[in-house]
Amino acid sequence: MSKFWVSTGFAAALISLAACGGGPAAAPGSATADLELDRAPELSGEEAHQFVSYGAVLLDVTPESHLAESAIEGSTHIPMDELRARLNELPQNASIVVYCLTGEDTARAAAVLVAEGYDAHELGARARWDVTNEATASR
Length: 139
What we know:
By secondary structure, the chain is α/β, with parallel strands linked by helices.
């Protein structure tokens, strides 16, 4: 009988922890923790061009291995996995428009920047920079 109560109590404790968010916390700066950050505002390609024309920094967070495919003239390249370590390379007094080749890392990178006090905006995939009809671009 005691084994029953011990296993029942253990199961109840696990359910209680899971329901209350008592599981392990995500490590600060990890991809999981970054996904819990508030999302940055999204921009269309046209809006991104406008921001950059007014002095915003265009930030490419594409991995180094795909830089040739994602580069936009005048953009700053800091791969997503190096972003936190290289924040000092970005101006605090300018808006930042974030993009990457596929758009996969854009939301995370922009959210990290916003959490660090930057005025960051999410463009999404590199293709959105070139598209005039936003309905055909992927985010």
